[in-house]
Specification:
Layout (H helix, E strand, L loop, with lengths): L2 H12 L2 H16 L2 H5 L2 E4 L10 H9 L3 E7 L5 E6 L5 E3 L5 E3 L4 E2 L6 E5 L2 E2 L5 E2 L5 H5 L13 E5 L20 E3 L4
Helix pairs in contact: 2-4
């Protein structure tokens, strides 16, 4: 595990439940009031684990606004797709302990408007370190060669304590469009 990943995970775990909930609420509020969210119809958003930014307010606001929510699902071949969820969707933990819908309609990644992206570490250049599986980079590889951002816009969410001084990107890394934290 890289030093930046290990440090960012330790920083994230060091937050108390109250600190995490307060920071998550600020992040979700910033997302919900953003131009990207308000103009989106098809939103990709992860279902959070205990230590991650809690995205439930984003999902619930999207449903109330008539938007469609799609969450990442992985397969045995190391691919990631996005599956629609509603308030009635049955979810279960996958082999990595990540919540996924048991069934649902899939959407192509390029048909999403925005994707609320989990972040382990990030820097001011919008480089991201995830958990190390490369799922997001493989799924959104088509964004690497774009001269301008059309869609989807990858919006990373993280606690400010996860910010790194500098992340050296690998050739396969897909940068974020924007990073939203509890500080900005």
């Amino acid at each position: 595990m890289s030093r930046a990943r290990k440090s960012a995970l330790a920083n994230r775990r060091s937050l108390s439940i109250a600190e995490r909930d307060d920071a998550s609420a600020k992040i979700c509020d910033r997302i919900i009031h953003s131009h990207e969210f308000m103009s989106a119809h098809h939103i990709g958003c992860y279902l959070p684990t205990r230590d991650e930014v809690q995205t439930t307010p984003i999902i619930e606001r999207a449903w109330r606004a008539g938007k469609r929510i799609f969450v990442p699902v992985t397969d045995a071949h190391g691919s990631m797709n996005f599956c629609e969820i509603t308030s009635d969707t049955v979810i279960a933990r996958n082999q990595f302990g990540i919540w996924e819908p048991v069934a649902g309609a899939l959407i192509r990644a390029r048909d999403l408007d925005i994707v609320i992206t989990p972040v382990v570490a990030f820097d001011k250049h919008k480089h991201r370190i995830g958990m190390g599986g490369g799922y997001y980079d493989r799924c959104f590889h088509f964004l690497k060669n774009r001269r301008k951002w059309l869609k989807p816009k990858l919006i990373g969410v993280a606690f400010e304590c996860q910010k790194a001084t500098r992340i050296l990107p690998n050739t396969w890394d897909v940068p974020l469009y924007r990073v939203v934290t509890n500080a900005k």
